[in-house]
């Protein structure tokens, strides 16, 4: 009895099965946001590292992975506090893939049983913003905590006022109050015909205008 040379051995079958399962196992990959839904805080993502399959000659051929939809986006938060920021098309993210299906949890929250037994599947991606390749790394301070953006909102009036009351603002307001006091004294002096009120009034108005302008510029800059 002859044996076909192409008949796979048991080892070949086992190796092939392991390879198929391994190729479908996802852990984490960089991706690019295609669209973002602020209402659900979810996005569609194009993964940026291609898969690969071997052709009939054994040569590895790149294969672009499909766009993943309804990917939840992680924002830091807890204890009633949160930090959110705009997500735009073109932003890069790190996609991590849950070890079980998260469809039911996304829909219902709480403790759930998964809808199927898939593991580390591409459909169970979670996006973490902020990942960059080395060529597009953002400038980061080595000595300070920096919160930067075109529109930064601290979230409460008390926090906003505290941020404004830095040393420069305190100095500007002190100067402004002093100018207001001088202005009031000059106005009072007008009623006294024995005093030369005009020069004092002019000087007070000039000081007031200068101090008010300086304070306003700081408020615009900080706020």
What does this protein structure show overall?
The protein has 223 residues and is of the alpha+beta class. The protein folds into two domains: 26-133, OB fold (Dihydrolipoamide Acetyltransferase, E2P) (Beta Barrel), CATH 2.40.50.230; 162-222. The chain has five helices and nine strands. It has helices at residues 10-23, 103-108, 157-164, 167-190, 197-222, and strands spanning 28-37, 42-47, 51-54, 60-63, 68-72, 77-78, 81-82, 92-97, 125-129. A five-stranded antiparallel beta sheet has the order 5-2-1-8-9, with no helix packed on it. A two-stranded antiparallel ribbon has the order 3-4. The longest helix has 26 residues, at 197-222.
Strand content: 15-25%
What is the ordering of alpha helices and beta strands? HEEEEEEEEHEHHH
Number of helices: 5
Question: What overall form do the CA principal axes indicate?
Answer: elongated
Can you tag this structure with a few keywords?
two-stranded antiparallel sheet; OB fold (Dihydrolipoamide Acetyltransferase, E2P); alpha+beta; 2 domains; five-stranded antiparallel beta sheet; elongated; 223 residues
Give me the secondary-structure topology.
Blueprint: H1 10-23, E1 28-37, E2 42-47, E3 51-54, E4 60-63, E5 68-72, E6 77-78, E7 81-82, E8 92-97, H2 103-108, E9 125-129, H3 157-164, H4 167-190, H5 197-222
Antiparallel strand pairs: 1-2, 1-8, 2-5, 3-4, 6-7, 8-9
Helix pairs in contact: 4-5
């Amino acid at each position: 009895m002859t044996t076909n040379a192409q008949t796979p051995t048991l080892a070949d079958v086992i190796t092939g099965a392991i390879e198929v399962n391994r190729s479908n196992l996802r852990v984490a990959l960089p991706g690019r946001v295609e669209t973002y839904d602020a209402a659900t805080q979810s996005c569609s993502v194009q993964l940026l590292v291609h898969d690969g399959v071997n052709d009939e000659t054994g040569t590895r051929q790149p294969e672009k992975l499909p766009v993943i939809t309804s990917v939840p986006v992680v924002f830091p938060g807890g204890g009633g506090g949160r930090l959110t920021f705009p997500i735009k098309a073109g932003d890069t993210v790190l996609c991590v893939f849950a070890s079980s299906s998260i469809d039911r949890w996304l829909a219902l929250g709480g403790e759930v049983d998964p809808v199927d037994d898939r593991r580390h599947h591409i459909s169970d991606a979670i996006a973490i913003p902020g990942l960059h390749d080395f060529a597009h790394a953002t400038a980061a301070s080595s000595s300070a905590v920096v919160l930067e953006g075109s529109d930064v909102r601290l979230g409460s009036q008390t926090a906003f006022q505290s941020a404004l009351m830095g040393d420069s603002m305190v100095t500007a307001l002190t100067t402004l109050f002093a100018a207001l006091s001088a202005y009031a004294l000059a106005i009072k002096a007008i009623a006294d015909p024995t005093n030369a009120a005009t020069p004092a009034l002019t000087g007070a108005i000039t000081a007031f205008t200068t101090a008010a302008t300086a304070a306003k510029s700081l408020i615009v800059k900080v706020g």
